[in-house]
Amino acid sequence: MSGKLARLDAFIANWRARLERQAEVHFAARSLESPVGTPAHIADDFAHENGFKRIGFDWELLDAEALPSEDRSAIGAFRDALSRDLAMRTGWLGDDQARECAREFLDAFDPATRMVVTNHIVRSGGESEGWFPISDATFEWAFVAYDERKIALLIVTAED
User: Fold this and answer.
1) Minimal CA–CA distance to 45: which of 61, 62, 57, 27?
2) What is the pLDDT of residues 136-149, one digit of tens each?
3) 3-class DSSP state for residue 18?
4) CA 95 – CA 115 distance, rounded (Å)
5) Within 10 A of 25 (CB to CB), how many other CB atoms are there?
6) What whole-number distance in Å separates Cα of residue 48 and Cα of residue 7?
7) Which residues in the chain belong to E strands, given as ranges?
8) 154 - beta bridge partners?
9) CA separation (Å) from 79 to 54, 69, 93, 104, 138?
10) Which residues contact 13 (CB under 8 A, 6 or more apart)?
11) 120-122 and 150-158 strand pairing
């Protein structure tokens, strides 16, 4: 990857094997110049560009600065997504590693212009109240983050 994508390259190199213990991992990243449109529109176009379904304005905007216990917390959503397997039956990364994964992903983007969305309806503390699928998988959780220079999609999927 180019220099501006180096942190995302390091992120997926660090986390892919751990994530793949419980899910199939799809990761894509590319340069982005002056994004135009709503966060949902930008995420939808990028997901579609990478072979996933469009969900329009059903992308949920997350707050990368919110504490994990707060509404629409990006850290809380990652924790909810990755601490247990996608069927929520067994352990996966656990709370601490899931939060660490989230921080490493989010830290790859400039905080001044960073936007992050998910395909889950996220409530207090990152808890999911359902999702809008972008794949045909039984279970999935997708995140798209971007800033003025780059964009990335992380989707984990699993079958029952």
Assistant:
1) 57
2) 999 999 999 999 99
3) helix
4) 23
5) 16
6) 23
7) 24-31, 60-62, 115-118, 120-122, 128-131, 139-146, 150-158
8) 27, 143
9) 25, 10, 9, 13, 20
10) none
11) unpaired
The beta strands (E) that lie in 70-149 are given as 115-118, 120-122, 128-131, 139-146
pLDDT in tens, 83-126: 987 776 678 899 999 999 999 999 999 999 999 999 998 776 66
Query: What CA–CA distance (Å, rounded) separates 59 from 151?
Result: 15
| DSSP label at residue 92 | S
How many Å apart are CA 143 and CA 139, to the nearest integer? 14
Measured over the CA atoms of residue 8, residue 13, residue 14 and residue 18, the dihedral's sign is positive
In this structure, what is the dihedral angle of CA atoms 19, 106, 122, 133, given to the nearest 10 degrees?
-50
Task: Write down the pTM of the prediction.
Answer: 0.93
- Length of the chain, in residues: 160
Whole-angstrom distance, CA of residue 95 vs CA of residue 67: 13
- What is the spatial distance between Cα 24 and Cα 52, in angstroms, rounded to a whole number? 14
Of the candidates 114, 22, 119, the one whose C-alpha atom is nearest the C-alpha of residue 77 is 119
Q: DSSP code of 134?
A: S
